[in-house]
Design brief:
- The structure holds 2 protein chains of 2 kinds.
- Chain A has a 4-stranded mixed sheet with strand order 4-2-5-10. A 4-stranded mixed sheet of chain A has the order 6-9-7-8. A two-stranded parallel sheet of chain A has the order 1-3.
- Chain A is built from 8 helices and 10 strands.
- Chain A is an alpha/beta fold.
- Chain A has helices spanning 6-22, 26-38, 42-61, 89-103, 147-150, 163-178, 196-207, 218-231; strands spanning 2-5, 71-79, 82-85, 127-133, 138-145, 154-158, 186-194, 247-257, 262-269, 274-279.
- Chain A has 2 domains: 2-20 and 65-145, no CATH class; 148-273, no CATH class.
- In chain B, strand 1 (7-9), helix 1 (14-19) and strand 2 form a beta-alpha-beta unit.
- Chain B has a 5-stranded mixed beta barrel with strand order 2-3-4-5-7.
- Chain B is an alpha/beta fold.
- Chain B contains 5 helices and 7 strands, in the order E-H-E-H-E-H-E-H-E-H-E-E.
- Chain B has a single domain (7-171), classed as Alpha-Beta Barrel (fumarase), CATH 3.20.130.
- The longest helix of chain B is centred in the first third of the chain and has 12 residues, at 37-48.
- Chain B has helices at residues 14-19, 37-48, 91-96, 110-119, 131-134, and strands at residues 7-9, 25-34, 61-63, 101-104, 122-126, 138-145, 154-168.
- Classes of the chains: A alpha/beta, B alpha/beta.
- The A-B interface holds A 41-43, 46-47, 50-51, 53-54, 57-58, 61-69, 105-109, 117, 119, 121, 148, 151, 179-181, 183, 235, 239-242, 270-272 and B 1, 23, 25, 38, 65-71, 74, 77-80, 82-83, 85, 105-107, 125, 127-136, 149-152, 163, 165, 175-176, 179, 182.
């Protein structure tokens, strides 16, 4: 048994909120640096150059890369040998978010009721997912998810007979419709299988897989690359003005499903996809 | 492109506007207003109930943006465009009432395009997700109404050479449908 005080979790959440909003994922940066060498569309080149300068400035001056500093989503993998002490873990997490957004000069974008829409003024509550895993550590993955891209995401309950073709068409259709609204170059997170909520959840996790990783399943590894190639032929390009870089990566997560179903979720994430991870 | 910057002032003359074409990059200088979803809803409610607006929108520029809070040494926090499509419901009414220039990102619907064509307006696209850099184009910022909306409050800001792409021109050409124009 290992005791962990929730105040430590609060501090980590606070730091991650600030850090992920100032420092772009290095793989995104590398993807841009590679693209700018080969892009032939001048406008696309110019936009990528602006994005790189924006990333530099945000990092150097500790200011948000994007004004939409997002809704905070957390995945906490808690080892079953951990005993949490010092208070309520959800309250601690939300306090970390509130302090991070206040002290970090980040935008408060959360409204309490989806219809009455009164701003909570501290960017809480976060969306929190707890998983119990083996061991005595806590792994925290934090996302600050912007809604330009979140709004362009989709979920569909396909039929088993729709097969891979159905999935592919749904992904391409979603990306086309998202167009410039989702702030391309995008990361396309896909969840296939499970139930309605499960496919949405694994699609979200797919958006924060490393851009350089490779799907463990050779079938899906191949599909991820094929889909990426197809999407990058759409000529949506950076900010939607055309070009070869519409998507930086397609990531597909799967889960066993029911004999009658083929749920698919496509979660789109923008060119500043902000996420960080820490193990306590 | 840096060498032959096309600078446009918010006190734009009609003939200059009519010469702009979808896909062109311009740099805008002058006073503009920030208003997004919640402020648009309130403005249209005021118009519908024949009440005066808290600021005159005639011949003005509205930018769909909600900035981050500023650090003490900053004029404004990071600022970039939000998705314009959410304002599509409100824009034609504002255009009818004198608003001409809009700045945002992404697609507009047919109704907005028609209004732009009819009233000779322009839809500009700001570069999404370059908000740290764009904050450097802002010289002053002041909340003028709806302060209770937090980041969605209406602000009047002074910008200098904010880079924009003409999204929909006075003829109704749409950059996203006409990529060849670039």
């Amino acid at each position: 048994m290992r005791e962990i005080n929730v105040s430590i979790i609060k501090e980590v959440v606070k730091d991650l909120c600030m850090s992920c909003n100032y420092n772009v994922d290095k793989n995104i940066r590398n993807c841009f640096l590679e693209n700018i060498k080969v892009e032939t569309n001048n406008m696309a080149k110019e936009i990528i150059d602006i994005y790189l300068k924006n990333q530099d400035l945000a990092r150097e001056e500790n200011i948000p890369i994007c004004q939409d500093t997002g809704m905070v989503i957390l995945f906490l993998d808690i080892g079953q040998e951990v005993h949490l002490v010092g208070g309520n873990i959800k309250e601690a997490i939300n306090l970390g978010v509130a302090q991070g957004y206040e002290e970090g000069y980040l935008r408060k974008s959360i409204v309490l009721d989806p219809i009455n829409r009164i701003n909570t003024k501290n960017n809480t509550p976060a969306v929190i997912h707890f998983n119990i895993v083996e061991g005595n550590n806590i792994r925290i993955r934090l996302l600050a998810k912007g809604f330009g891209s979140e709004n362009m995401s989709k979920l569909k309950m396909l039929k088993p007979s729709d097969g891979y073709e159905g999935i592919k068409n749904f992904i391409l259709e979603t990306v086309k419709e998202a167009g410039p609204n989702a702030c391309p170059p995008i990361i396309v997170g896909v969840g296939i299988g499970g139930t309605m909520e499960k496919c949405a959840l694994i699609a979200k996790e797919a958006t924060i897989r490393s851009l350089t990783d490779k799907n463990e399943d050779p079938f899906w590894a191949k599909k991820e690359l094929e889909l990426l190639e197809e999407i990058n032929k759409l000529n949506i390009g950076p900010a939607g003005f055309g070009g070869n870089l519409t998507s930086m990566g397609v990531k597909i997560n799967t889960y066993p499903t029911h004999i009658a179903g083929l749920p698919v979720a496509v979660n789109i994430s923008c060119h500043v996809t902000r996420h960080e991870e820490k193990i306590i | 492109m840096e060498n032959n910057k096309k600078i446009l002032y918010t006190t734009i003359q009609n003939r200059d506007i009519n010469n702009l074409r979808a896909g062109e990059m311009v740099y805008l200088t002058g006073d503009i207003y920030l208003a997004r979803d919640a402020a648009h809803k309130k403005l249209v409610e005021l118009i519908d109930s024949n009440k005066p607006l808290p600021f005159d929108i005639k011949n003005q520029v509205v930018y769909y943006a909600g900035p981050c809070p500023n650090r003490p040494e900053q004029v404004i926090g990071s600022i970039g465009p939000t998705t314009s499509a959410r304002m599509d419901l409100y824009s034609p009414k504002l255009i009818e009432n004198g608003l001409i220039y809009m700045i945002g990102k992404g697609y507009r619907n047919e109704k907005v395009k028609e209004s732009i064509k009819k009233y000779k307006g322009i839809y500009f696209i700001a570069i999404s997700g370059a908000a740290a850099l764009m904050s450097k184009c802002v010289e002053s910022s002041k909340v003028i109404c709806f302060e209770e909306l937090g980041t969605e409050a209406v602000r009047k800001i002074k910008i200098k050479e904010l880079p924009l792409i003409v999204g929909i021109d006075t003829l109704g050409n749409d950059v996203y449908n006409n990529k060849f124009l670039l």
